[in-house]
Design goal:
The chain is built from nine helices and ten strands. By secondary structure, it is α+β, with helices and mostly antiparallel strands. It folds into two domains: 188 residues, Beta-Lactamase; 127 residues, 2-Layer Sandwich (Heat Shock Protein 90), CATH 3.30.565.10. The protein has a five-stranded antiparallel sheet with strand order 2-1-5-4-3, with helices on both faces. The protein has a five-stranded mixed sheet with strand order 6-7-8-10-9. Strand 6, helix 8 and strand 7 form a beta-alpha-beta unit. The longest helix has 58 residues. The chain is elongated. The relative contact order is 0.07.
């Protein structure tokens, strides 16, 4: 009659409870890890919303005490500006204790082991061989836990935490929780670094674009006014009125440039370099723009940059030279692309400098992994050459 259970003895209640213990432990660990991720997400959101960026690592330390049995925590990380390891944040600890400290993995062996092995390390009892004496004396710790902050094999920092006194060794669930805390804190720190770098790059791009717009619109108007005012002849009413109109227009253009939203340095294009050469040739027949070679070929990813360089080179030839011809050619090898624009109307003896447009184009070339060169190559000839590795 008892053959429904496979013939084995019926387990007792205690045995059934013991069999469920690993499942309950795993469920408890998963629940804690979810709490950790949610709390850290809240830390990130609140730090950005409230502008409390300097308190970011302090809040991460608070997260350690919120989801574990730890009562104090300090995050040590490498400061690229100061070029030293420093206490970036803490909870339940006065960070002034570490203001002038010299804290490295060489003077704190347990931190090196935690980072190299990417695991949580606990030390108890005699800690002088594990941590600097100054740290131990200031906090009076006799038991400390070190959680590594490692992201893609990069050592971001460590979390040192303790209970404020001696306690039982941490169990596997808490060890896993601390490891997740360290890993998540490292990813959050790396994300913040990447965000700051991206913001700096955007700011630089916006400044360059603003300078280019001011140069192309405002400076050109003011340059024309200065030429008119530099003459020796007396001004008539018409000339004086025209200068006043140009100055007012320059001020209006400057206001418009300052308030308009910045765009991209090298915008996308729907045309080709060949079509752009033909368009410029028809628009400026006096420049003698011609294509050299049977065919102009440009790798698709470099079309916007090549067209931007061409337009700027033609603009400079029209403004600052009197060319009889502007020759455009492309070339390169299996791993490079080269665009060259040569005009034969450079003024001999006149110093030739880099205009704002060429500087911006040079910056865009560097972003693409290439190089923009410009300068005289022979008498009365001025060359602009763009070289880009095709692997870029």
């Amino acid at each position: 009659m008892g053959g429904l259970t496979g013939g084995g003895p019926t387990p007792s209640r205690a045995e059934r409870d013991n069999a469920r213990m690993p499942t309950r432990a795993a469920e408890a660990g998963s629940s804690v890890q979810i709490d950790v991720i949610e709390f850290l997400a809240d830390v990130l959101a609140r730090s950005d919303e409230e502008g409390r960026l300097d308190d970011f690592y302090g809040r991460l330390c608070e997260a350690v005490t919120r989801v574990t049995s730890m009562r104090r925590a300090v995050i040590f990380r490498y400061d690229e500006v100061r070029r030293q390891v420093r206490a970036a944040g803490g909870f339940g600890v006065d960070l002034d204790v570490f203001a002038d400290g010299f804290f490295t993995v060489d003077v704190a062996p347990m931190t090196r082991r935690a980072l190299e092995e990417d695991c949580v390390i606990e030390a108890r009892g005699d800690l002088e061989s594990e941590l600097p004496r100054r740290y131990l004396e200031a906090l009076g710790v006799t038991q400390v836990v070190c959680a590594p902050m490692v992201a893609r094999d990069r050592w971001v920092g460590v979390i040192l935490a303790d209970r404020g006194g001696v306690g039982d060794p941490i169990d596997e669930i808490e060890r896993e929780t601390l490891w997740v805390l360290g890993k998540t804190a490292a990813l959050a720190a790396m994300a913040r670094v990447a965000t700051r770098q991206h913001e700096k790059a955007l700011q630089l791009e916006h400044r360059i674009e603003l300078a280019q717009n001011v140069h192309d619109v405002v400076v050109q108007r003011l340059f024309g006014v200065s030429l008119a005012l530099s003459g020796d002849r007396p001004f008539d009413e018409e000339t004086r009125g025209r200068c006043a109109e140009e100055l007012q227009a320059a001020l209006a253009d400057l206001r418009q440039t300052l308030v308009q939203p910045p765009g991209r340095a090298t915008p996308a294009t729907a045309t080709t370099l060949t079509a752009e050469i033909d368009r410029l040739s028809a628009q400026h027949p006096q420049l003698g723009i011609t294509r050299l070679g049977a065919e102009i070929r440009v790798p698709a990813p470099f079309e916007p940059l090549a067209q931007a360089v061409l337009i700027e080179a033609v603009r400079n030839a029209k403004r600052h030279a009197r060319p009889r011809s502007v020759r455009v050619s492309t070339g390169g090898s299996s791993d490079t692309f080269t665009l060259q624009i040569v005009n034969d109307g450079a003024h001999p003896g006149r110093p030739q400098g880099a205009g704002m447009g060429l500087l911006v184009a040079g910056f865009a070339a560097l972003q693409a992994g290439g190089l923009l060169e410009f300068g005289p190559i022979e008498e009365e000839c001025w060359r602009v050459r763009l070289t880009i590795p095709t692997a870029a």
